[in-house]
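Work Package 4 report. The design task specified in the project plan requires that, given a folded chain encoded as structure tokens, an amino acid be chosen for each position. We show below one input record used in the internal validation round.
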């Protein structure tokens, strides 16, 4: 999901959110980055706003990547008679999703 708005002369704000295709929900814990852009969080969880230099009008492309943390699971919990607990937590591998946002700079 992307929204584009003018941010002044030769600048454009592009707000990006990663959305699951199966249910349309925004992935709130994704870490979003964009090429050649300065990013800042937005008021909406799961979205990130990037300010992009657009010195010329017309079609522009920005490359976007999102790192989605892998699932975390508890592999083993051990409880001994001396009231000692041991838990091993395994974190899954992060997944990286990449794409392009094409927009028309004014």
């Amino acid at each position: 999901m992307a929204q584009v708005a003018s941010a002044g002369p030769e600048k454009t704000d592009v707000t990006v959110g990663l959305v699951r295709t199966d249910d349309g929900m925004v992935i709130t814990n994704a870490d979003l980055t964009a090429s050649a852009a300065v990013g800042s969080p937005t008021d909406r969880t799961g979205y990130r706003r990037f300010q992009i230099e657009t010195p010329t009008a017309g079609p522009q492309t920005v490359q976007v990547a999102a790192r989605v943390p892998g699932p975390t699971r508890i592999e083993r919990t051990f409880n001994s008679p001396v009231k000692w607990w041991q838990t091993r937590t395994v974190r899954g591998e992060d997944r990286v999703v990449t794409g392009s946002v094409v927009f028309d700079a004014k």
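Strands lie at 2-6, 11-17, 31-34, 38-41, 47-53, 58-68, 72-79, 85-91, 95-105. Validation will be extended to a larger panel in the next phase.
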